[in-house]
Amino acid sequence: MANIKQLSKIPERLTSGHRLCPGCGASIAARMVLMGTDKPVVVGAATGCLEVATTIYPYTAWNTPYIHNAFENVAATISGVETAYNALKKKGKINKEIKFVAFGGDGGSYDIGLQAMSGAFERGHNFVYICYNNEAYENTGIQRSGATPKGASTTTAPAGKISYGKPQLRKDLTSIVAAHNIPYVAQSCISHWNDLVTKSQKAFAVEGPAFINVLALCHRGWRYPQSDTIKIAKLAVETGYWPMIEVENGKWRFTYKPKTRKPVADFLKPQGRFKHLFKEENKSVLEEIQQDIDRQWNYLEKLVQATS
Questions:
Q1: pLDDT at site 146
Q2: Where are the beta strands (DSSP E) in the chain?
């Protein structure tokens, strides 16, 4: 487990003074992830909230070498940098150990960046990919993404008289990545710092690709008070909405299990994007969402048993 005294000695890689919203999950996720190594690290970031608000020209909040690229190709960019590093190391022009990390939002990971990410994993590049998952294209207007959960109201899947919001289930990206048979895959949440930092340490330590899907809440898109970010993040974990899992060399395990899972409605109700679900006419949708959460939880428990 992560040692907080040792972590305090690691210099900040993402500094204060950026323009991310108060209560933004992306900045919390990035700071925790970058505590996962004390080695020099090169950061790549896809176009999105994390990029836009930390590198407004001529300023930067990054105390690392940093590359901004298009929305869809951060995995390709960082794998190219990692390849160049290996070439220079063979030629004796670099003799120190350097780590590489790519940050992409759910839009740039689940959707338009999936091809580049999958290719980098299949080729076996030695880097860490972090999906800071706020469950929509929050930076460009809160459009639905492949990570948006069923029933959520977004600007492109709005709730109204003839719709209860997004009708489809969210994509299970973590299982998709695990199917690439890379050394390390995990899900974590900004509400559990030790879990996230420990998983980041494991991810940076393995040889080959690693992936962490981090639930990084967005109060603007989810519509709750800024001060409630960690409170609602904890409810995501305690209800089983966001299972805390890891896959090490094909073996699945829970890193945290609530003693008793709370109803998923406890997580949904404080958020404005789900307020319409608590009308009588949408009662059946709430029941379906709970059933979906229970089904996914049972699926994970079977995976854990089958691979243990």
A1: 98
A2: 41-46, 66-69, 99-105, 128-133, 184-189, 210-215, 244-248, 251-256
